[in-house]
Design goal:
Helix content: under 10%
CATH architecture of the largest domain: Roll
CATH topology of the largest domain: SH3 type barrels
Shape: flat
Number of strands: 15
Oligomer: single chain
Number of domains: 3
Strand order of the largest sheet: 4-3-2-1-5
CATH class of the largest domain: Mainly Beta
Structural class: mainly beta
Distance between the termini: 52 Å
Strand content: over 45%
Order of helices and strands: EEEEEEEEEEEEEEE
Number of helices: 0
């Protein structure tokens, strides 16, 4: 049986008869006390964050999750319609499963979907995406000496802060996990 030594970020375990995903963990050995693992987990069903302390060597019920790669076809209200690259089957995935990165998902992007049996339980978009700036105030010449930022609206409707030299119509690279501007695309 697997124990706390087998924990890793992103793994799925069954905790209190609920399926949870480990988001953070830390092994601690405080002075004369026994070692333990401080673990933050996200409930897959309702999205709530749970924190628990496990003894070192304590048995855990790991859940085997299948991960498949899909292409995003289009967004339909609160869901994304995605297609399996091998079988061409189409399924609907709630945008809630993507978390904050759902703001940066557009048509044609490859995503990874995790399944527990036939039920989608988690979705992960790409780490970086290239997007077009659809609206931003024009930059003033000479304002690039500071690290000043201005808001810019992207093609998916997401609003992020970009440097003053970025103009409307340009393509930029964005970190889809944090929503930060990375660089201009040539």
């Amino acid at each position: 049986m697997a124990d706390t030594g087998d924990l890793f970020k992103g793994c799925f375990i069954r905790y209190n008869n609920e399926l949870v995903q480990v988001t953070e963990y830390e092994h601690r050995t405080p002075g004369n006390l026994r070692a333990f693992y401080q673990v933050k987990m996200k409930n897959v069903r309702n999205g709530k964050t749970i924190e628990n302390r496990f003894r070192a060597g304590e048995g855990l019920d790991f859940v085997r999750v299948d991960v498949k790669e899909y292409n995003v076809l289009y967004k339909d209200g609160e869901t994304f319609v995605v297609m399996d690259n091998e079988t061409f089957d189409q399924i609907n995935i709630d945008e809630v499963l993507f978390g904050d990165s759902a703001l940066f998902i557009k048509e044609g992007v490859k995503v990874k979907i995790s399944f527990d049996g036939e039920t989608p339980i988690a979705a992960e978009g790409p780490n970086t995406v290239e997007m077009e700036v659809t609206y931003t105030e024009p930059g003033v010449k000479g304002d690039t000496a500071t690290k000043a930022m201005k808001p810019a609206t992207l093609e998916t409707g997401a609003v992020i802060n970009v440097p003053l030299f970025v103009n409307q119509g340009e393509k930029i690279k964005v970190n889809a996990v944090t929503g930060e501007y990375l660089e201009r695309v040539k």
